[in-house]
Structure formats: structure tokens, C-alpha cells
Amino acid sequence: MALQTPPSLTPMPFDIFLLLELALLGLCSGFLAGLLGIGGGMIMVPFITFLLSSRGVAAELAVKMAIATSMATIVFTSISSVRAHHQRGAVRWDVVKSLAPGIVLGAAIASLGVFSALKGSSLALLFALFVGFSATQMFLDKKPAASRQLPGSTGLIGAGGLIGFLSGLVGAGGGFISVPFMTWCNIAIHNAVATSAALGFPIALSNALGYAVSGAHLVGLPPYSLGYIWLPGLMVIASCSVMTAPWGAGAAHRLPVKKLKRIFASVLYLLAAYMLYRGSIKHKIINTNRKGPLSHEWAF
Asked: pTM here?
């Protein structure tokens, strides 16, 4: 039986308003990436989802493409951010080398398909609780035990795997896990943020490659897509974010440690609240007609 190919999506005109929206998103996410080492995915994913869905992309596909495009932009943002941190000698490259193997493995597992299967309310709620707990610890500025140090090589590979895997689920750079983990292990907050920025590169590259491969055979994608990655959005956001990432990195080194922790904790609370919302609502996809991908929309 011959397969029927769904009608292609209506081409999305790359108008001046879309260009400005993507540029502003890139400027903001780049600054936050440098300031907090989070990669900016928390901001990019919901906004890219909105931009794609408002231009006719099916809701389910828009979410996946937003996650993939966000992750791909972090490849470039992390390079710009980590250069600024490295010039100040803040990156713990020994930690990067120890966590990277696990990160690559965890990211590959997530991006090659598991992230789609595990997008459930229970995972979102557990994730929100974990992030909220980490934010509370940082907000209270609880000092870690003097004897607490980084785990051995096996523990670091396991921690890296968890960071890479969870980052692949939400399209974030991993700072929401890696920074609390490193501060918990008695690494100074400035070093933790800088090292998290360096970890963003293997996280983003591994996941982006996986998204490109896993979406390579999809039909009905928007024009100029590489698997799940929306290339026009990637190019504009990345080119703008690399300009502001060094500014954020510079601000991170000027702020007091306690204030920086509270800023980062506030971002974590926002992420936890968003995940809690996504996990609590009951959502479904309604097929308003049966003519193709454009017939799908979210209903809450």
C-alpha cells in the first residue's frame, strides 16, 4: 500500500516582524546564558513554540522544533559565553572533562527519541519538584558540608548522564542542574556558572545532532528545516545571542555571590513553575479537519 504524503505546510514568509522577534529573543537569551550559565533554553522554547504555531505549524511539531532549535542555538551561545568566562580563569576544565562523557551519552539517549516518549505529567511534576528544591537551597544560601567534594569518576559520569538527558527533554543548556550540583559540591558559584557555560557545548551539540537525525525523515516540516531544527530561527537567534553572551558573563563576575545565587534561584523557580503548569494541565490535540498537519491545535 502506497504511503500518502501529507500536504506541505504553507511557506512561512520571513517578514521584518518575525526577524525582530527572533533577534530580540536571541539578545535576551544570550545575556542570560552568559549571566547564569543556563543556555537560554527556558526562554527560547516557549517563544519559538509560539512563533511557529502562530504561523501554521502543528502544535505538537512546533514544541519539538522549538526544543531542537533552542538546543542548536546553545551550541553557538555556549562558545561565546565560555570564551568570556575562560578569559577570567573561571572555568573548571577538569570538571568539564569528567562530566562530558556522561553528558554525551545522556543527551544521545534523550534526543534520539526517548524525550518524546517520556513527555508525561508525572515527569514534568517530578522535574518541577527537583528544580524547585534546588532553587530553595540556593535562595537560602545553605552552606554545603565542609567535607563534601565532587564524586569520583563513576559518579561524575552518572551526574553528566542525568544532566545531558534532562537537558535533552526540555531543550535547555543544563545549567539548571549543573550549577546547583557544583555548588552543592563546594565549587564557588562563579566557577559553577562558568563551568556550566562550558558544559553547554557538549550538551547542545550532542542533542542537536540527535534531533537532526531523529527528524530527518519527517514530512510536513516548515521550509528550511534540518530534521526538527528550524534553520531560519537558529541563524537569527544564534547571531544575536553570541553578541550579548559576553555581556552576561561580565555581569556575572561583577555581581556579589549571594545576589547571583538569588538571581539564578529566581530563574529556577520560573522554570519549576512552568514545568508544574505543563504537568498539571490535561492537554490533548484536537483534529478540526483531516486535511493535514495544519488541522491540529492545542486545547486545554
From this structure: 0.73
CA pair distance 201, 231, nearest whole angstrom: 18
Residue 196: all three cell numbers together = 556550566
- Strand-strand pairing, 284-287 and 296-299: antiparallel
Residue 278 has a pLDDT of 56
Among 161, 154, 145, 71, smallest CA distance to 107 is for: 161
H-assigned helices in 37-142: 41-53, 59-87, 93-109, 115-117, 121-139
In this structure, what DSSP letter does residue 110 have? I
pLDDT for 111-151, tens place per residue? 887 766 655 445 466 567 766 776 786 677 666 565 578 88
Distance of CA 299 to the CA centre of its chain: 25
- Give the domain ranges of the chain: 16-282
| Distance between first and last Cα of the chain | 36
| Residues 128 and 69: beta-carbon distance below 8 Å | no
Residue 105, all three cell numbers: 551519552
In sequence order, the 6+-apart residues with CB closer than 8 A to the CB of 36 are 175, 179, 193, 248, 252, 263, 264, 267
